[in-house]
């Protein structure tokens, strides 16, 4: 079974990977898919994806959806601790926050490279909790 079929089976929804997928109206997945969203969460958000978002690069479906969306954009950074601490990456995070992007995380802990430190993506259940809180009524706002 292909990864696409697996994701479709698990989610019960169509999966898109192509900027010019013919299924949406006018074959413009990068426009149509963003119109139905209440929020757009990119998890994991790599240093490369954060850079593309901070600088407006649109060269794939995810980055183009992010640029075309009308809903809030949320990113969940995931990278090695040195990459997280890298000054250009920190500038990109600061720019995204200034642009109104919400950043969930990162967490500190064991990383895929075998090191420990800040940069790992929050656990999926933590992202779900934060997303629920993002939409909750803010009584003291």
How would you describe this structure to a colleague?
The protein is α/β, with parallel strands linked by helices and 141 residues long. The protein has 2 domains: 36 residues, no CATH class; 98 residues, Rossmann fold (3-Layer(aba) Sandwich), CATH 3.40.50.1950. The protein has 7 helices and 5 strands, in the order ααβααβααβββα. Strands 1-2-3 form a 3-stranded parallel sheet, with helices on one face. β4 and β5 form a beta hairpin. α2 crosses α4 and α3 packs across α6. The chain starts with a helix and ends in a 6-residue tail after the last helix. The relative contact order is 0.14. The model has no long low-confidence stretch (mean pLDDT 91).
How would the blueprint of this fold be written?
Blueprint: H1 3-11, H2 29-35, E1 40-45, H3 47-55, H4 61-68, E2 73-77, H5 81-85, H6 87-98, E3 102-103, E4 107-110, E5 116-120, H7 124-135
Parallel strand pairs: 1-2, 2-3
Antiparallel strand pairs: 4-5
List keywords for this structure.
141 residues; alpha/beta; Rossmann fold; 2 domains; three-stranded parallel β-sheet; two-stranded antiparallel ribbon
Largest sheet: 3 strands, parallel
Helix % is: 40-55%
Q: How many whole angstroms does the radius of gyration measure?
A: 16 Å
Number of strands: 5
Judging by the overall fold, what is the CATH architecture of the largest domain? 3-Layer(aba) Sandwich
Q: Which spans of ≥5 residues are poorly predicted at pLDDT below 50?
A: none
What is the compact description of this entry?
The protein folds into 2 domains: 1-36, no CATH class; 38-135, Flavin prenyltransferase-like (Rossmann fold, 3-Layer(aba) Sandwich).
């Amino acid at each position: 079974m292909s990864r696409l079929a697996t994701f479709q089976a698990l989610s019960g929804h169509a999966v898109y990977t192509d900027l010019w997928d013919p299924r949406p109206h006018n074959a413009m997945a990068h426009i149509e898919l963003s119109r139905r969203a209440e929020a757009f969460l990119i998890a994991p958000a790599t240093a490369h994806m954060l850079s593309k978002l901070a600088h407006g690069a649109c060269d794939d479906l995810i980055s183009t959806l992010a640029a075309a969306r009308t809903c809030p954009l949320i990113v969940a950074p995931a990278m090695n601790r040195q990459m997280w601490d890298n000054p250009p990456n920190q500038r990109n995070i600061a720019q995204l926050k200034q642009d109104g992007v919400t950043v969930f995380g990162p967490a500190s802990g064991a990383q895929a490279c075998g090191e420990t430190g800040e940069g790992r993506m929050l656990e999926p259940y933590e992202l779900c909790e934060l997303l629920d809180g993002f939409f909750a009524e803010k009584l003291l706002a």
